[in-house]
Amino acid sequence: MQPILEISGLTKRYAQGPTALDAVDLTINQGEIFALLGPNGAGKTTLIGAVCGLVRPSGGTIRAFGMDLAKDWRAARARIGLVPQEMATDMFTKVSDAVSYSRGLFGLKRDPARIESILTSLSLWDKRDSQIRHLSGGMKRRVLIAKALAHDPDLLFLDEPTAGVDVELRRDMWRQIGAMRAAGTTIVLTTHYIEEAEEMADRVGIIDKGKLLLVEEKRALMARMGSIEASFALAAPMTAVPQALAAYPLALSEDSKTLTYRGHGGADEARGEVARLVAALVRADIAFTALDTHQSSLEDIFVDLVENKS
């Protein structure tokens, strides 16, 4: 894939404060959804702010669309959209006026048809004449997305886009985000709902204390670091794991009533291994009354990485 954003050695140090970004290298490919995950204070918002011109880096380079942001900031920024965590707009402004104003900030002509299209896609058209202060929290969040889309960016940053939004609105937003990607928009998002990243993202980056711990294609990461645990409730207690099952990483519980398998790998590989273990148990004439399995999620991998690096 062609890179749309190239970050090299990006550093941000605050006077008498922490290092928010520590020599971060990151490449974002055109047309992908990239999820940047990390605990609070990890550096996610600082990184986004540096690309969007809200934070002045202490060092490093940022290139977007082949342009150096230090030299061609205005031209590059005109192709970047940002949905911030916090509302940063006049609450007394009408929805349609706020979105139209955002378009004008980038020197684009008025385009009522385009504004209508954006508001309709976000279920905001019937709220177009409402003041933003009268909207629900979820609708306000949609206004932020509409403002970010007003100038038709090629690269869109979503900083906690579904924070404080109910489940129904979250689903609507993710459908809209999928439609944006289908239309060719490259999306970089941060989220505390890691299951969203697991469902939507093509690649994942994990950042903590200003350092980028890893960047990897999501499926490859799940296959490399994923794990599965399968517990068999035995029909009769056993004194030891039979020699016929020695090839499997099995542990017998203290009460001798549960046999537990712990393996690694992606979902398909892990399920296949458990299926082979079930067949081995049957061949060895070992009866069990229940089987409980747990496949690791992206959140499990994230927590393990951050805890082990802290």
From TrEMBL:
InterPro entries: AAA+_ATPase, ABC_transporter-like_ATP-bd, ABC_transporter-like_CS, ABC_transporter_ATP-binding, P-loop_NTPase. Keywords: ATP-binding, Nucleotide-binding, Transport. GO terms for molecular function: ATP binding. It comes from the Bacteria. Residues 5-234 form the ABC transporter domain. This is ABC transporter ATP-binding protein. It comes from Novosphingobium aquiterrae.
